[in-house]
Amino acid sequence: MSQELTREAEMADVTQRIFGDTGIHVRFTPSQGRHVITMRDIKTAEVVLTSDPYTVIANEVSITNVCAACFTFRGNDVEHDEHCDVCNEAWYCNEECKAEHFEALHRIECPFMKKVKEYDIGNKFSKAKLRSLIRLLVKRHLEKTNPPKPSEEAEKSGRTGPKFVDVESLIAHDEDSEEDQEELEILAALKTVIDPIYIDGSSDEYILKLMSRSECNQFGLWSPDDDLLGLSLHPSASFFNHSCIPNCYSEWSGINLVFKALYPIPAGAELTISYIDAHSQTRQRREELRSAYYFTCICPRCTRATGKFPREYYDAFYQRYLRCPKGPGLMRLDSYQGTDPSESDTEDSSTDTKKKTKKKKKRSNTVDGVELPNKIPFGYEVRSCMTCSIQRCSPTVPGLEEYLSMFNIYEPVKYMEEPMD
Is 201 within the bounds of a domain? Predict the structure, then answer.
């Protein structure tokens, strides 16, 4: 009983510190582990959470193209104006970013990053992992010796942000725990380039486990041309469990990861995202998740019916509303929803000169060669694919529970799944 109370207290602390007044609560069950639920109804495309990174590190080939402070990307082969003259491993948009980053972290990291630049290790990705590990250990040390003061806004909301303890609580997948040569090389390099005070007596096993936690939970930051710019670690994002019929998706806003609703989500529902391309068949999805994330998916679309609705109903919802008709990618609500005739050109009678108000900008996109309507009919909406940007005008996506309760009145959808063994 005391263990349960301790767990509840831990979840309450994490909820307050990381999610604050966002209406998201952290829960724990043996089957789901740590997961998040919403305490309020969420509308389609509504922002569920804006996740701040605990660490963000530029990739080796992108160091001069992205700002080390705000991660602004200037474009391939376009260097930033300011940089650290000592290590040449940190480049900035301007003096303000440079001064802010130096005071917060770079004054400590600079000699270590200079050694990393000169160190011969593995490949360009190994150096990025090494720099990320250094950043984690430096932040751990700063939290112990000089804890950051929360802002006024954070104190009001109670959302003081992630701490190192949240990184330590992340899942580390070491099922195939044979010694990885690259990890051992990074560990050896770390001991060479960093001051022992930042290792702080941590064992090799602890450092390797920390490296695994970081790698398993990092997100890639990509350029418009799909070049990897860097790696960011978002502890709050790790609370979103996987589902093959997700109700949320994520997109980048600078270095923040923004989660939005794919369709209406009722209060009390678990918030989920898809870790993989969920278009494939059940066997393929489960194999990919076992291989990459070390778990077997038990979402409603993967398991046989144990309650009111069979899994075919869930798959029909996914195929009808969320799947891109052209390939991999989820269909999210598009910002284009037609133009309103009431907002056409009007005369301004307040002056003798006739002025016209600007029309809303209409996108010229078409769907399968057919131009999108000027005004979206009542009960319809436009969605676009997150991968290929194709658009589709179709009936408004209902909530999952609403769809399931009325499944028998919808037109049948071709079922693409193979029967499970």
Answer: yes
In a domain, 371, yes or no: no
- Beta-bridged to residue 258, according to DSSP, are 50, 251
What is the DSSP annotation of 41-53? -B-TT-EEEEEPP
Sheet holding 55-58, edge to edge: 55-58, 228-233, 218-222
Helix 124-145 and helix 204-217: axis angle, to 10°? 110
Cβ atoms of residues 56 and 234 within 8 Å: no
Alpha helices in 249-380 (DSSP H): 282-293, 311-317
pTM of the model: 0.81
Task: Report the distance separating Cα 413 and Cα 401, nearest Å.
Answer: 18
- Say which amino acid occupies 175: E
- Check: CB of residue 289 under 8 Å from CB of residue 276: yes
- The domain in which residue 100 lies consists of 55-233
CA pair distance 183, 196, nearest whole angstrom: 19
Residue recorded with tokens 């609703």: 261
Number of domains in the chain: 1
CB contact at 8 A, 62 and 89: no
Chain segment 343-360, per-residue pLDDT in tens? 444 444 444 444 444 444
Contacts with 303 (C-beta within 8 Å, 6 or more apart), sequence order: 311
Burial class (CB in 10 A: 0-12, 13-18, 19+), 132: buried
**Euclidean distance between CA atoms 242 and 204, whole angstroms:** 31
**Tens of pLDDT along 111-158?**
999 999 888 886 767 888 899 999 999 999 999 998 877 667 766 666
Residue 104 lies in a domain: yes
17 assigned to some structural domain: no
Q: Is 309 left (phi over 0), alpha (psi -120 to 50) or beta?
A: beta
